[in-house]
Amino acid sequence: MIVDRVDPQALEAALSPPLAGPVEWHSEVGSTNDLAAALARSGSPEGTVVGADHQTAGRGRRGRDWQDGGSDIAMSFILRPGRSRAASLLPLLVALGVAEGLAGLVEDRVELIWPNDVVTGGRKLSGILCELAWQAGVAQWVVAGVGINVGPVPPVPDARWQPASLREGGFMGSRQDVVRAVLGAIGRYYSMWQAVGGAGVVSGFASRDALKGRTIEVDLDDGSGLVSGEAAGIDPQGRLRVLTSEGERQFAAGEVVRVGH
Fold it and tell me: What pTM was estimated for this model as a whole?
């Protein structure tokens, strides 16, 4: 039984453009990203939000399962950036908006691990999966899926980052409060990005960067292996900068698998 229910009508009434709904919220779905993608393909507008109390086929980056409970948040939303700006910063933009939205709800500092893991105290609070539909080099639509741990989560064997939760961080409000705060923050960064470009996203990400100055190991998405070095922030395109023994390298896609001091 779900006690802390999300009321889609009340939530939609509380939202502001560009992420202002329509909102649909389900008891159980396979994947909110799959539902939102189907809506995007059928022409649903930017700002459409799809959420669920339970996902039976939720997923994260690299096809990992995303486990959720009825006390957590699983939602996806549609963006239609079109030709306005390059889309490479969108996953980082969404992560930054989530971090900013959650920062006012917990006691500890909320930080970001490139490209889009949201952590507090070195433990993962939220994960993000962005899926884009391209046509002639233009992002026709973007579906951004966001999973947020609200209630306590048991340890996850072999996970890169063990889970954290909002309740453990002192949050006593409702899931609807969380959704409203996160969508509002993402919407503000998205509007700024559309209007003036990505400088504000890059600087905002830098202010919450949990990696800069630390020794890291990156597993590249192209299968070419691991790269070690010192994290040096992100560049204007959102690429991770790493100072290696052979000089600085930038990476557009990959996953940080180890963080040292």
Answer: 0.91
